[in-house]
Amino acid sequence: MEMKKRVAEAAVEYVQDGMVVGLGTGSTAFWAIQKLGARVKEGLRIKAIATSAKSEALAIELGIPMVPFAEVDYIDVTIDGADEVDMEFNLIKGGGGALLREKIVAAASRQLIVIVDETKLVRQLGQFSLPVEAVRFGIETTKRAIEQLGCRAGLRLHDGSPYITDNGNYILDCEFGTIEHPEQLTHRLNAIPGVVDNGLFIQMARKIIVGYRDGVIKTLE
In the CATH hierarchy, which fold is given to the domain comprising 130-197? Predict the structure, then answer.
């Protein structure tokens, strides 16, 4: 927990007065939101857009001003975590179930800062199951089509029932093993009818802030 907190706080140092800030989702992004809330109380003037209802609720609780997408042309900086990061800054995201909103926010951002611990760094993506958000209608057909790409797909559950995203969709967790061509895979997945988007973020990150067990924090860019 302490490592995640320190990495998150290092990322928040890039936030300046007057910025529109994207708020990530997950256990590391939680600490970034906490730090931003503290800085807002100290006088930092920002507006924020959250990647999930959970992060938005936390931000409001901490007094961070929220703004709808309709009122901004772009986001200055987004701080978010990742489940895996490869050497080319490709990511797997979506373990927290917010991959679609995370990708929308990231795509609208001038800078995406990803905060992780060293265990998330990999040579090639795929050790972590790839989340794919899909509409509920025809989910069985969508699942079969995804599996034809060479994986085993499982419907994500929560308390014994299908997990429902903030967008009202399902998530299929797909075990591909090593993903040798992530850019090609993301296009093939998104071409399947019923797939809304997937958790591959292809070279969207500008900075990766990494926390190591020995307490060292490194910024990759």
Answer: Alpha-Beta Plaits (3.30.70)
Structure tokens at 117: 């611990």
71 is catalytic: no
Beta-carbon-side half-sphere exposure of residue 213 (alpha carbons within 13 Å) = 2
Catalytic residue among 102, 147, 175, 221: 102
* Dihedral (Cα; 159, 164, 165, 169), 10-degree rounding: 150
pTM to 2 decimal places: 0.95
d(CA 193, CA 46): 39
DSSP state of 121: B
Of the CATH numbers 3.40.50.1360, 3.40.50.720, 3.40.309.10, 3.90.180.10, which one belongs to the domain with range 2-118+202-213? 3.40.50.1360
The model's pLDDT over 5-14, given as tens digits with 9 standing for 90+, comes to 999 999 999 9
